[in-house]
Amino acid sequence: MPTNTPTFDALRTLYRTEAVNADGRLTDWSAGSVNNAHATAGAALANEVVGVALAKGEESFVTLARGTALDARIVDFGGPVRKTPNAAVAACTVTRGAYVGAYTLVAGTEVTGTAPDGRVLSFTIDADIVLGAPASEASGTMTCSFTGPDGNVPAGTVETVTLPDGLTFSQDERAAGGDDGEPYTEEGDEAYRQRFYLEIAAREKGTVEALEAAALSVPGIRYATVDESTSGCSDGGYVSIYVGDPDAEANNTLLEAVEAAVDLARAAGIEVRAFASQRQEEAFEFIIFLPADSPYTETDCVNAFVAWINGGNGRLGLSPNEPYTSSKAIAAIHRALDPLDEGKVILVKQTFPLADSIVPTNPYNAIRTADDGSDVYFDVRYG
After folding, report:
1. Helix-strand-coil percent breakdown of the chain, rounded to 5?
2. pTM of this structure
3. Candidates 3.30.70, 2.60.40, 3.30.300, 1.10.600; correct CATH number of 202-278?
């Protein structure tokens, strides 16, 4: 594909050159002249044709296509369909404290609660939870009423539901799997493209790529990292896969779905166990030098860094077991604030931690900051 296409001005100059070569009597090219008007109109039309041709050419390649054109190319090649937004799911339990007879909490019942940040949440029971006469408790699952990571809340958050006296309701695990895609409505082009490449490499069962692709096919799973260090007989005799939703966490409901998907991708005789990723929150401090007339504030700098490390604004955060390096962070800050390298950022320096690299303390950890960036500080200096 050509990367250098003629500009509008270049096309107009070309028109004039060709016209003069054809008839030297065409000498008036001043503004408002007939010659200049024809050159401008011809250049405008040619510019549109070049743009359409370039766009059509890009749509023919997986590496260049975007939006619906990318969907068409990937599906044409037998790849996966794009993932859509997903709602958070959590396990729940109805417990009998005093005998009240058999009871059924019917599917579709609304359960509410208040998130740590004050948001009111609503979940619905997925299937009838039947508490038989002899049993002391019965379990099921419930799904958030909206899609996206805002539904990924701690255990014990969503527990308000009307029950007969003697029965209690509990949210037993963190709600997980809520994903609004990338950036906000569906799986973004780059994540979708990379998942397709991964599936192409995963056509042979039992490979690391096959296991990762299977895990990433599960709605709500954004991260998947395979660890073969436990595959030896003396180490356990199984392969570990660490998975996480957009918050780099998971719950038993998601893990069961991942293990079911991975079971179809593993080679005969290989046991694969799925484990939930965990956030490993770290604090960071930077000095950033900006031009005197820069419009950027400390908040802008913090948001750029948090979006890179936590995931957001169309970006994926660091994967489980992926080391943090200051050089990558600094490069990400430059890209976010000065994408065209126009001198909008002079210098970025990390002052804390002093180490240039942070390795997760466990293979299932994902390096993160606080969600609101409260543990990130930028000393912004202008001039």
Report:
1. 30, 25, 45
2. 0.69
3. 3.30.300
